[in-house]
């Protein structure tokens, strides 16, 4: 944007969060190893192996039970497919099979069962909770910033409690009741996946809520900003800059271009950051914010008595 005020700088106090990214543009704060342990990965593989074994070998191909359990397991697998991509900060929409998987998932409807069924309420509740997780993940993806920055703003769900619907599921499973065995495995699979999702949300909790951000005093322009820091920063390192401006969160990519000593004992470094590929809309929002702040401060300085 060819605007002289792009280089106008003004001191402001802003809630901000600075998130380091690697050379591929992925956040450094969370990685797969931090979100799921090797033991949990092996357990998930074992749950899948047992489920596939029961579904393939035991149920009659034409039975309604097989279809119901197939739908539940299919949705669980789609939930995990989305989580795996997000754990690596990858946009699932870029995968060649994303649209196909999404269309297939959208085809499913809540299962129906006989009123006399003892496990019917459990199956329906399980289906609904899986659906809530899938909807949440799809919202995170759709509302991402350029498919690179994913915000997890929805409140956490409690882990699924089968005892709210069937008091003796474990007893039935241990006694060899096949539907109970399969449901026990599915509940365990859902809760393991939900636990990993919760860790993912926790890793990005600070990004997702501006209420958790520090207030920075920054010298801001539409081209970049500088701020005082307690610690040094690596020159030319990249970060995502989250700023709350006039009640709206603005997310920009920034590159550290300078580092100087300051006169502040508590904050001995002044770090210079250059915005990278800011959109015209983002530049305009920053410029208008500065103009309003400058005008407001000017009015206050005139109104205050000497």
Automatic annotation (TrEMBL):
InterPro entries for the chain: PilZ_domain
Pfam families, per database record: PilZ
Residue ranges of every copy of the PilZ domain listed in the record: 209-287
Protein name per the record: PilZ domain-containing protein
């Amino acid at each position: 944007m060819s605007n002289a005020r792009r280089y106008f700088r003004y001191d402001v106090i802003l809630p901000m969060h600075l998130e380091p990214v690697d050379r591929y543009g992925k956040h450094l704060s969370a990685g797969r190893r931090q979100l799921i342990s090797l033991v949990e990965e092996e357990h998930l593989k074992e749950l899948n192996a047992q489920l596939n074994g029961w579904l393939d070998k035991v149920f009659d191909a034409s039975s309604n039970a097989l279809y119901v359990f197939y739908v539940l397991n299919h949705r669980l697998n789609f939930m995990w497919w989305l989580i795996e991509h997000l754990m690596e900060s990858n946009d699932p929409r870029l995968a060649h099979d994303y649209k196909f998987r999404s269309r297939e998932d959208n085809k499913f409807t809540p299962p129906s069962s006989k009123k006399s069924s003892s496990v019917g309420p459990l199956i329906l509740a399980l289906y609904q909770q899986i659906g809530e997780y899938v909807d949440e993940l799809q919202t995170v993806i759709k509302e991402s910033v350029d498919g690179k920055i994913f915000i997890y703003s929805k409140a956490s769900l409690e882990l699924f409690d089968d005892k709210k619907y069937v008091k003796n599921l474990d007893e039935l499973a241990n006694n060899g009741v096949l539907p109970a065995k399969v449901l026990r495995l599915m509940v365990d699979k859902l809760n393991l996946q939900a636990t990993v999702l919760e860790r993912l949300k926790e890793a990005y909790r600070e990004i997702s809520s501006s209420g958790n951000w520090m207030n920075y005093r920054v010298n801001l322009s539409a081209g970049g900003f500088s701020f005082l820091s307690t610690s040094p920063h690596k020159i030319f390192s990249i970060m995502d800059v989250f700023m709350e401006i006039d009640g709206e969160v603005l997310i920009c990519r920034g590159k550290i271009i300078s580092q100087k000593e300051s006169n502040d004992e508590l904050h001995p470094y002044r770090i210079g950051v250059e915005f990278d590929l800011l959109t015209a809309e983002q530049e305009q929002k920053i410029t208008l914010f500065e103009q309003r702040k400058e005008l407001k401060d000017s009015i206050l300085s005139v109104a205050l008595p000497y």
